[in-house]
Amino acid sequence: SGSMEPAFHRGDLLFLTNRIEDPIRVGEIVVFRIEGREIPIVHRVLKIHEKQNGDIKFLTKGDNNAVDDRGLYKRGQYWLEKKDVVGRARGFVPYIGIVTILMNDYPKFKYAVLFLLGLFVLVHRE
Amino acid sequence: RKNVEDFTGPRERSDLGFVTFDITADILNGKNVLQSIFDWNVKQLFLYLSAEYSTKNNALNQVVLWDKIMLRGDNPRLSLKDMKSKYFFFDDGNGLKGNRNITLTLSWNVVPNAGILPLVTGSGHVSVPFPDTYETTKSY
């Protein structure tokens, strides 16, 4: 979605790591899943409270959102925990986004892509 | 600093801190003191001012007080005065009262056109103490 613009856009490819021993710190971009929901969310860590034993609870927010993510969490859930984290964003490549932009700006490119896709489908019909 | 119900989250009374700050910064390339950080592959910087401190409840707390997106082409020199925090500075408990050591640091996430997303911490930081008593009347 557009909640991390202008850094990332729909269709960008993110490279993630998921080392459990990596500490969660503010400013990091984490990929997390809310219990009971399939779609992971990629937002930035806004606040952390970590105990001596390593137990941590943290709050996230999309760069492009006006408010933090509490509205997205489960009812009664105010914090995320380590177990909710699926990965940490370490790098990215603007990918499909570039292709759609090119298709919008250059109709000939769009027809070429569609033509090639059509060929691909025909050739692989078996 | 006040002790109020954290109305953004769990309904328990927690300390709420009020901080005003100035930021003067020149965001430069780490290797070359004179070269701006905005090279050909830097699309934007996500800047954030965070407060880090320890309390009885939690060994480590970090709270982002303010953030800003700086795009390629923007002036990499910051000169902000009398800023108020963008986000509520709620503690998880009552650990701000009398806390002598809250460290404010400016950091930024370098967002490239493509590639790695490093987090960089600025070299300056400042320590602020919170008073031993709560404010009752001053509005923010």
Helices and strands, with pairings:
The complex is a heterodimer of chains A (126) and B (140).
Chain A: E1 13-17, E2 29-32, E3 41-50, E4 56-61, E5 80-81, E6 85-93, H1 96-105, H2 107-123
Antiparallel strand pairs in A: 1-6, 2-3, 2-6, 3-4, 4-5
Helix pairs in contact in A: 1-2
Chain B: E1 2-5, E2 13-17, E3 20-26, E4 42-53, E5 60-71, E6 77-84, E7 89-90, E8 102-112, E9 115-116, E10 119-128
Antiparallel strand pairs in B: 1-2, 2-7, 3-6, 4-5, 4-8, 8-10
Walk me through the structure.
The complex is a heterodimer of chains A (126) and B (140). Chain A contains 2 helices and 6 strands; from the N terminus they run E-E-E-E-E-E-H-H. A 6-stranded antiparallel β-sheet of chain A has the order 1-6-2-3-4-5, with no helix packed on it. Chain A is of the alpha+beta class and 126 residues long. Chain A has 2 domains: 94 residues, Ribbon (Umud Fragment, subunit A), CATH 2.10.109; 29 residues, no CATH class. The radius of gyration of chain A is 19 Å and the shape is elongated. With 140 residues, chain B is mainly β. Chain B has a single domain, classed as Immunoglobulin-like, CATH 2.60.40. In chain B, 0% of the residues lie in helices and 52% in strands. Chain B contains no helices and 10 strands. A 4-stranded antiparallel β-sheet of chain B has the order 5-4-8-10, with no helix packed on it. Chain B has a 3-stranded antiparallel β-sheet with strand order 1-2-7, with no helix packed on it. A two-stranded antiparallel ribbon of chain B has the order 3-6. The interface between A and B is medium-sized, with 28 and 31 residues. Strand 6 of chain A pairs antiparallel with strand 9 of chain B.
